[in-house]
Write a structure and sequence with these properties.
binds glutathione; 9 helices; alpha+beta; Glutathione S-transferase Yfyf (Class Pi), Chain A, domain 2; about 55% helix; Glutaredoxin
Length: about 210
């Protein structure tokens, strides 16, 4: 049986919970990380030397990095509708996943960790301001892409591309401390994702 290690309220764990639910997979879950079992525990570090959650255990294999886990699960289940085998279609899906991993990191720290939660060291005013403006700019990129294509990020069908992006869109619409210029295609996308029960269970579930 698959086992997911990581607290259910963690950003990177919730993406994996969303996919496990979309795929209808049975799994066990253990709460590791902040406020739960410490990931500095040698038993955990033996599975993931980075000490981060999530980690997915599949038999003897320990898979780390949330986006790697998403691709691993889709491939394991041959869920090619979510992770196309055709290389060009696959590249489009992966491009959006990598874009979130790299390009949303600074905005999430500045706008969310600093501006919304007031955490040190991110709450420094200029960093918060930069984070908010970069978050808005990048949501504008999604809005433009969705208006030009859509209804999902990689085109006609819901794919893995929508999981990391869906999360940062959810956070954008959940933060009380940001100004949101009108982005009709992005708003429609958020509502479209909200028609998915798994999205409501793990992402738009009252947590930010
Ligand atoms: N790039 C990693 C980042 C993992 C990460 O930073 N996880 C956070 C939770 S979202 C974590 O482990 N925090 C420490 C903790 O919860 O103790 C991934 O995508 O899995």
């Amino acid at each position: 049986m698959l086992k997911l290690l990581g607290r259910k309220n963690a950003f990177n764990v919730r993406k994996v919970l969303w996919l496990l639910d979309e795929l209808g997979l049975d799994f066990e879950q253990e709460d590791w990380g902040r406020d739960f079992r410490p990931t500095a525990d040698p038993a955990f570090l033996a599975l993931n030397p980075l000490g981060t959650v999530p980690v997915l255990l599949d038999g003897d294999a320990a898979i780390r990095e949330s986006h790697v886990i998403l691709r691993y699960l889709a491939s394991r289940e041959a869920a090619w509708r979510l992770y196309p085998q055709a290389l060009v279609a696959r590249a489009e899906v992966e491009a959006w996943m990598d874009w979130v991993a790299y390009e949303m990191s600074l905005p999430m720290r500045g706008a969310y960790l600093g501006g919304e939660l007031g955490l040190v060291p991110w709450k420094e005013a200029s960093f918060v301001q930069l984070g908010r403006s970069e978050y808005a700019k990048r949501m504008g990129i999604l809005d433009t892409a969705l208006a030009a294509g859509g209804p999902y990020l990689a085109g006609e069908a819901f794919t893995l591309a929508d999981i990391p992006a869906g999360f940062v869109v959810h956070r954008w619409f959940s933060m009380a401390s940001v100004e949101r210029p009108a982005m009709p295609a992005l708003e429609a996308y958020y509502e479209r994702l909200s028609a998915r029960p798994a999205f409501l269970r793990h992402i738009r579930n009252g947590l930010m």
